Amino acid sequence: MSPSMNEIVQLAVHAKLNELASIPVGFRSGRRLTADDLRRSGYNITAEQLREGLSRNFTDVANRLGVEFFMGLPAVLLEQFTLMSIMRNEDCAGLLKSLINSFVLTYVTPETSATAFSHLEGLEALRAEAAKARNLTPKPMTPHPQHRHH
User: Fold this and answer.
1) In the beta sheet, which residues pair with residue 31?
2) Across-strand partners of 26?
3) What angle do CA 89, 104, 106 make, to 5 degrees?
4) Which value, in Å, is the radius of gyration of the alpha carbons in the chain?
5) Are 51 and 5 in contact (CB under 8 A)?
6) Among 11-20, 70-79, 111-120, 123-132, whose mean pLDDT is lowest?
7) CA-closest candidate to residue 58, choices 18, 17, 90
8) What are phi and psi of 13, to 5 degrees?
9) What dihedral do alpha carbons 27, 131, 79, 58 form, nearest 10°?
10) Roughly how many angstroms between the first and final C-alpha of the chain, as a whole number?
């Protein structure tokens, strides 16, 4: 009997959490935000509560955006994105879904397509700045050809 979708999601979430457990916390690994940052933001949280919170948010991302998408996200970036969304009291999966849906809708609309693409390039430029500050690769994760017309 094949595993249910819920079982597949839980296996994927568990794999991400295990991957994180093997990566040291700190600037060098990219794990800059920690439970201490949550505490400074007013969240009195234990290590177990943090793991449960990450598990809940990871499960939500996998359920709302798909397991394949979820598995393609680097564990450290997913953790850091989740922690920032908790600190800012924002919906982690909702932010990702909105980013994708907003770009797709504005990109496929002829009146806003060029502006949408320009905003994507601006976001990629901002990503390059952040990458430099974090000693990451300056290239976008999914490069695209420059203004290629068919």
Assistant:
1) 26
2) 31
3) 95
4) 17
5) no
6) 123-132
7) 17
8) -65, -45
9) -170
10) 46
